[in-house]
Fold this sequence. Notes:
Keywords: Chromosome partition, DNA-binding. The protein has about 325 residues and is of the alpha/beta class. It has helices spanning about 35, 65-80, 100-110, 125-140, 145-155, 160-170, 175-180, 185-195, 200-205, 210-225, 230-235, 260-270, 295-305, 305-310; strands at about 45-50, 55, 85-90, 95-100, 115-120, 275-280, 285-290.
Amino acid sequence: MxxxxxxxxxxxxxxxxxxxxxxxxxxxxxxxPAEAGLRPVEGAYFQEIDVExxxxxxxQPREVFDDDRLEELAASIKEVGLLQPVxxxxxxxxxxxxxxxxxxxxxxxxxxxxxxxxxxxSTQDDEMLREALIENLQREQLNSxxxxxxxxxxxxxxxxxxxxxxxxxxxxxxxxxxxLRLLNLPPNVQLRVAAGLISAGHARALLTLDDATAMExxxxxxxxxxxSVRTVEEIVALGEATAGPAPRKPRxxxxxxxxxxxxxxxxxxxxxxxxxxxxxxxKGRIVVEFSTIDDLERIIGTMAPEAANSMRGLDGE
Length: 317
């Protein structure tokens, strides 16, 4: 098997003090919880475990795994690594049984990983573990991709909600939603975000594109040409990111009054999304972009809280 991909950290694994290592040769001395700035997580620790030392949970209700989806996840793991650790319990003789994350474990085997990041849990109290992880998420400085992976695993594996995460980590609900969207980027674009070559603002602009190839092409331009977020937004709005190799004549762009641009910038900051303000000869319009029903509900809640109340339940939360 090939070596495990490295480079982006381990999502929730970064929030848990390191425990025993199966293979001492692969471990550096583990920092204490105090040195790591983390609260000790009772009944759980982080460890990298041999893939073949893990057995699936025989009580797993899910029996069918989509092969195509597994291959897609395996390809992402090869490129980026596994950001969301599996959750296991020790069953003796150096072996472990899966509690959560069988799909991630299966995809890691397909990707040829020797070891997978894992949360080794002895406690049966999911809520206690979830609360400790959320508390440590406030303390540890993660990169954008690690943060997104931690949010996703807390939502999927530990039954947290957007509201709970927002309150516990001191972030807005829109921040949670926008950070989670980074996981929709193609793997090699995620690498650039994690490395700090592309900002979260750049990433949000890229995510308005439907085509992964176009995202990758524009991401390469951002790095090579040092494009600003505003420039990237304009490229996307003009459709230049999806244009083929044939030269195309730039579309004439109507100049925007400085006052309108300033107003659009203020509204974008206020609603934490892109806002466009256009003024014609007889009337004008304001366009407020949103990514999901959850994001739309958040924006409407900012504009008109009474209207947002009537939308509760549309996103299935």
